[in-house]
Amino acid sequence: MNNSQLAAFCKVVESESVTAAAALLFCVPSNITKKIKELESEFEVMLFTRDRNRLLLTPEGRTFYQKAKQALQLEEQGRQLFTGDQLRGTLHIGALDIALSHHLPTQIAAFRTQYRDIQLNITPGYSLDLEYQLLKGERDIIFSDGPIQHPLLQSRLAFPEELVLIGVESDPALLSQRDLYVFTHQCHYRHQIDRWISQHAVIPRAVLEIESYPVIFACVRAGLGFALVPKSLAESEHLAYSVQPERIHCDIYAIWRCAHASPLLQDFIQSIPTP
Question: 80-109, pLDDT tens digit by residue?
């Protein structure tokens, strides 16, 4: 069964004539008759009864007409989705918490204002999880740590970022008297912080895994410990911070699959200003 057979069948029903249906579909009547016979042979049922020069719908044909009409309407609706200048579709976006909370809201709101027919599915995640989802095709684009060195992925810098020290002075002797607040090892920042601790021979009083910046900030303000956090967050929270001499960069990159040629995705990428 194909759409040309369905169209022929529906036109015969609506015009009550094989000849009229053929004229509407710009073909000869024998083509229409052939398509109807093909449908009847496939379903092993009579769709019409023949009464001299008239075709009358059987009860089975009447039921089939309803479904055939729906199928043709669905096809037409599908075609209309991608006609005209207005982009349509669903974009699956994954991003680090810092990207979602601080960098992306304004950009996404502006994109949504321009493209109201586009559905956005936005979820947070850790770097490695986001990259895995992107490679599996579960995400169209992610905002994560970069740059990415992978043959199937490409990336560009989206938001410059760096880790800064909050909570105590940068003297290692003072740092050893306080708790250190970090995310789990699933977080790329954690690995950078571990390297920084090793390089500076810092031994905190305790290392506490707290996956909540609001909780970390509350503990820091209470004088309980210190943390290395994205500079943009420290500034938005009006927290005093010190930038490390070696500058702990944690820039956020837009990352997508190389083979992804969707105009919708390309427009979204272009909507993110280049730093």
Answer: 666 656 667 889 999 998 999 889 999 999
Closest CA to 115 of 275, 274, 272, 271: 271
Band of pLDDT at residue 169, cut at 50, 70 and 90: low
C-alpha–C-alpha distance, residues 190 and 94, integer Å: 20
pLDDT for the residue numbered 166:
92
Retrieve residue 204's tokens. Answer: 């905190």
Task: Report the SS3 class of residue 165.
Answer: strand
φ and ψ at residue 204, rounded to 5 degrees:
-65, 160
DSSP state, residue 122 = E
| Rounded-to-integer distance, Cα 3 and Cα 1, Å | 7
CA distance 168 to 175: 7
Please tell me the distance from the alpha carbon of residue 120 to that of residue 126, in angstroms, as a whole number: 19
Measured CA to CA, the distance from residue 273 to residue 275 in angstroms comes to: 6
